[in-house]
Write a structure and sequence with these properties.
By secondary structure, this protein is α+β, with helices and mostly antiparallel strands. The chain has 2 domains: about 1-20 and about 125-185, no CATH class; about 25-120, no CATH class. It contains 10 helices and 11 strands. The chain has a 4-stranded mixed beta sheet with strand order 1-2-11-10. A hairpin with a 2-residue loop joins strand 8 and strand 9. The longest helix is centred in the N-terminal third of the chain and has 14 residues, at about 45-55. The two termini are about 15 Å apart.
């Protein structure tokens, strides 16, 4: 079922589905999906990422730096913008720590080196934002996230709660408050 919050259509699965990332079990699979498309980007993020590339390159593996130097960090396919991936698998901004795929942009942000956390599509995941004459939010179900469903159920946390920060970042605090009220939280 879809509900409308300030002209944003939201699939209620976001409010009803338990979810908390379990990186120890999934190993950061969302950053390493096999696909010819990387994570979606919006135009504004290209300039932001371009301005921080020098700061984040120190966290990146050499093959990612080479890919970016040769082809850039994003590509346009079918009129949409995406982060480049290495061999149609891991994001160019991935580094591995203890066998877990992690975001170099987020690492630099957490260490106070930059003021951009990561692309909103990555921050919102497992929520996917699409545009069908306006924003539509839906839960993107993937097998690699089964541990997150289990952890969310055991901690009694839904996708809506898990993604509070990125939802507020993207739509604002008032929008999130109206969303919570609409879903009875």
């Amino acid at each position: 079922m879809l509900i409308s919050i300030q002209d944003v259509m939201v699939n209620t699965e976001i409010a009803d589905t338990p979810f908390v990332c379990d990186l120890k079990r999934c190993k950061g699979a969302c950053c390493t999906f096999e696909s010819s498309y990387g994570a979606p980007l919006n135009r504004e993020e290209i300039g932001k990422i371009d301005s921080i590339l020098n700061e984040i390159k120190s966290y990146m593996p050499e093959m990612s730096i080479d890919e970016i130097d040769e082809n850039g960090f994003y590509e346009e396919k079918d009129g949409e913008l995406f982060i480049r991936s290495i061999e149609n698998k891991e994001c160019v901004f991935v580094h591995f720590q203890d066998g877990i795929a992690r975001c170099t942009i987020e690492k630099a942000f957490n260490e106070g080196k930059i003021n951009f956390k990561k692309p909103i599509s990555c921050h919102l995941f497992p929520i996917r934002k699409t545009n069908f004459g306006g924003d539509v939010l839906k839960y993107e179900k993937i097998d690699e996230c089964k541990p997150a469903l289990e952890k969310g159920a055991s901690e009694n946390v839904t996708i809506a709660e898990f993604c509070e920060e990125p939802l507020q970042r993207n739509f604002g605090n008032q929008w999130y408050s109206e969303f919570k009220k609409a879903i009875g939280r």
